Amino acid sequence: MADPALDHYELADLAATRRYFRKFGAITGHLGRVAGLMEAEGRFTRDEIDGIARYLVALTNTFRALGHKYHLSGRFPRASKVTLDRVESGFPVLAELLLMANDMAQAELHLRQSPGVEELKDQMVRQIVGERQIPTRLQFTLSQRLYHEELAKGALFLARNDPEPAWLGADSVDGRERRRFLLRWAVYDGQVNLPAIYLMEVEDTGWHSLPRDQSRWPAVQAHLMAQSLDGLKLLTIARGFDEDFADLHPTRLRRIHVGPMYSRSFTAQTGPIHDVLDQARAPEGDDWALAWTEEDLRAAGAERVRSGWFGSVERQVYTLDPFSARGAETGASATTRSVVMPQRIYQALAALDPPGFRDVAKFAVAPSGAVARYR
């Protein structure tokens, strides 16, 4: 087994660190418009987009916070350095988010003990004008102040983002109410160092509405978070949930992988994407491409199976991709792959036309920020 540490490296250079976080700030800023186009195509409903957009904004906030934290990397001796997964994802490693969550718990304490932003700026001006020195220590203090202010605001993408329910409606079946919910949650998967967003449609036939049922809802949240691993197929997750909760019926489950991010400056890519980025020779701000993959598992119906000596329970019957020999292997009904990239990278991709990208949806970002979809 390869040593993951060999794929991880610290950004020790100040300029490179700032470029990296500027790049990700721009990338995550485009994803909301990409999600809007996907909604317009009918790939997602408004309830689903609401959840996805919330996690994308949280991801933007997380990168902004980390950008403040590492703003003085390589210049100030006490400034730590961000560790990236340069092979698998192009994202920071999971340990960065775990440390950020720990810092978040102590953010208010740090803010109480630190001078305010305006006071720090005033001290910096006095040191520059009066002492004719670069106020490196004060710059570091200011960067950490801004970091903890971002943490105190909350709304960050954490290693675990617990499930939340959205009401979809209810039907009456055989005289009993059958409520429908959309469960939305997200994780930062440490196996691949990538954000993953989950959407599960559930039919609830319990006596009490799921979010208000304190005997089921905490157990549902714990179960889903424990099963949110990239190495588990959607079919495994859905069947496990279906078997553990007799009155909850998962009719659809989706997993969205945001990433990997590819860049000639920060990642070690191979294959067609390497050729595309190499041929594009894009300037720093446009030197990137971001993969977006959606796995989708749907139930075709349900069947009654025996439970105990005299009882029976409803179990979902899931369909695997009938048009792909890999349906059973992937454990999904369908897998949709997309890639988001600046217009210049798209032009290089279109010119090379590598076979592996012909069935991938392309979202090209213009210099104005407008996003266009190509096939």
TrEMBL record:
Originating species: Wenxinia saemankumensis
Superkingdom assignment: Bacteria
Protein name: Uncharacterized protein
